[in-house]
Each structure stands twice: as structure tokens, then as C-alpha cells.
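Sat 14:20. Reprocessing the chain from the morning session after the first attempt stalled halfway. Input below, unchanged.
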Amino acid sequence: MKIVKTSLFCASLFSVATLLANDPIPQAPLYPNPPGNCPSFFMGGDASIAVDYFRSLPDGSWTGNGGAFGSVNLAFGIPKEKYGFGAQVGGSYGLYDWDARGSNTSGNTKALQQQGYLTFGFFRQTPSSSGVNAGVVYDVQFNKEFGVFSLNPIIAQVRGQLGYVIVGRNEVGAWASYDTQTSHKEYQELPVTFRPISQANIFWAHYFKNTAQTMLWAGTPYRRGLMNGSGRAGRYILGANFRAPLSKAFSIVGHAAYMAANSGPASQKSKNYAANISFGLNYAFGGCKAGQRPYMSLADNSNFLVDSNVNF
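Finished this time. C-alpha cells:
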């Protein structure tokens, strides 16, 4: 938990520092020099490899899961693409707990935890220096050896984002998610339910002239939690992500999030919080126009939090 809070604090300092830089108000499109190589076709995207740590309510009293994943996120300009409309599809696959899993209460404790995500949807990204950005995607999470009971749930959510780019290359807006698919499993005749945590957040993002960017968000779960008969899954959510270019195509990327546990005894709060931190190397390609770069991030353990009805 301390690692995640420290990372969020560092990301906040990074964001504040950017405001102090000499970054004039743009008079041209938001991405005058888009990342990646720019061929003539109408597709762009990102390919990444990253290290990742996450935990959520299904992990209970265990510290969490460390590993790595690879991902690809593609965007395609669609008719009227000069207005910034596009479609996107992507996914990721990760392996966790390489040094065995003490939290695996059944089966092979050396079995790796596997996790995959699929994200697809549509978006509109402003082609000018100001205007409306919007996107809606469907996220699916696939798991194997997940949580303290080492189960294999598949769950899903819909996620939307609406923002407005204002002067100084800043974007303000809101994003939210809503669970659409719950998974019901069983562990030694004990019913175990998994569900995405529906959440609502406000955000601020800043886009640099050199294609770097950062985003901060804060919000809350808004549906009753599976373990809380009269309360939400958590109290509040804080999150951040960034992109720091190394060259025109390569950049360092990262994201982090923290959800505070709902009120209750310390023994319960220590089991019922969520956290994620990830850093990686990203390769951007194509996408020379608005609508040809993904606006929505892939589903990950920062924007796809998981609830459960039981842990220990």
C-alpha cells in the first residue's frame, strides 16, 4: 500500500511540475508531432511490455501479485475521420507470482497466476487544439488461478470517458465504469462471486508538445459491495498514468491506482483495499491524425478493480 501511495504522490509532483514549464498555448492540432512512425494507412497503436503489481478484494489478507504483461492497443480511423472518429481494439496477457503463491489454498502452489484483458469500442478525439474528446469501450477480464481461492473467473464492464481540451493543452472531464458480467464460482462448496467494481471519477490530463502526457483522477465506487450489505466496495479511488518519451516512437509508460477500504475494523480494512502500480516500455506506431491513435486506455488493474463476496 505504501508503495502505491508513494507512486501516486510522485505522479502528482510530476504533473504539477509540468504546469510550471514553459508550454505555450497551442495554435495547431493537439498532436502536431504524433508519436510513432507515420505510414500512409489509417491505423495507429501502441505495443507495450511492463512489470505490474496488483491486489484487490479477492486477494484478502495476502499482499498481492507481482509479474509482467504484454499488450497491444490499436486504433482505426472510420468515415469522417477528419473529425476525429475512430474505433479501437486491444488486449493484454500477463503472468504473475513467479516464485510460487502462498495464497493458493488448493492445487499447485507453484502454478502461475494468468490474467488477460480484451478492450474494444469507439471514440472521438478532437483534431484541433481544443474541443470534445469522448470514448466508450467494453472490457473483459480473463483469469486463471485468481485470488485466495485460485479460481478462474471471467468478468466484464463497460467504461466511458468524456473530456474537454482547454487552453494550455489541458483536458478535464470524467470517466466511469459499470459492471456487466459477474462470475459465480465455488470453492469446496463455498459460493464465491466476482464482479467488477463500478466506479465514477473526475480527471485532469496534460499533453506536452513532445507527446508526453500525464493524467490524474479521483473518484469513488458507487454500487453496493458484495461484502458490504449496506455499503460500497470502497471509500474512494485515486489514480494516475503517464507517458514520457525516449524517442519519437519509444516511451516509458506507467499507471497506478489505490482504492481505500470501506469503514470497519482494521483487520477487515487490511484485506479489503485495492492497489496497482505498473511501469513499462511502449512502442507507438502509425496514427498521424486524430482518430488514428487510441483515446481510451486498455483495461488494466488500475481502471478495472474487482470485488468479491468472500476472502480471508
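The chain has one domain: 2-308.
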